[in-house]
Amino acid sequence: MSAGSGLESVDFEIFGHVQGVCFRMYTEKEGLRLGLVGWVKNTAAGTVVGQVQGPAAMVEEMKFWLSKEGSPSSRITRAQFTNQKPIDKLEFSGFKTRF
User: Fold this and answer.
1) Mean pLDDT over residues 40-69, rounded?
2) Higher pLDDT, 3 or 8
3) What are 5-20's pLDDT values in tens digits?
4) Which residue out of 42, 78, 83, 98 is catalytically annotated?
5) What does the pLDDT read at residue 5?
6) Can you give the pLDDT at residue 2?
7) Res 72: pLDDT
8) d(Cα 48, Cα 70) in Å, to the nearest integer?
9) Side by side, which strands form the sheet with 37-42?
10) Burial class (CB in 10 A: 0-12, 13-18, 19+), 12
């Protein structure tokens, strides 16, 4: 699953008690720690959505973190990952919280 560069992109939506628990801030920190780029934001439906891009192995690590760990006070009931695909180059710089 490599486009020569080994970079991947994936969209995510996290369900559960994930708003008001610093989930976005922790997601941003974890993404940066793993050397990933992307964005994260709250939805009106009470979920958290975003996109992560970077080396395939780090994207997989981030998917695990998003689905099993999250912020200390969060309770994740479900994580949905869509549009996972190899990419030629990163489309973002840094990891940002969107509003």
Assistant:
1) 98
2) 8
3) 699 999 999 999 999 9
4) 42
5) 63
6) 40
7) 97
8) 11
9) 75-87, 7-17, 48-55, 37-42, 95-97
10) buried
Encoded tokens for 10 = 């994936």
Q: How confident is the model at residue 38 (pLDDT cuts 50, 70, 90)?
A: very high
Closest of 18, 50, 19, 23 to residue 37, by C-alpha: 50
Burial string for 67-85 (b: 16+ CB within 10 Å, else e) reads eeebbeebebeebebeebe
In angstroms, the CA 38 to CA 30 distance is 11
Q: How many CB atoms neighbour CB 86 within 10 A?
A: 14
Q: Tell me whether residue 75 is one of the annotated catalytic residues.
A: no
Alpha carbon separation from 45 to 34, 56, 57, 84 (Å, rounded)? 28, 29, 30, 23
Catalytic annotation present for 83: no
Site of tokens 């934001």:
41
Instruction: Say whether pLDDT at 4 is over 90.
Output: no
Q: Which of 24, 75, 78, 98 is catalytic?
A: 24
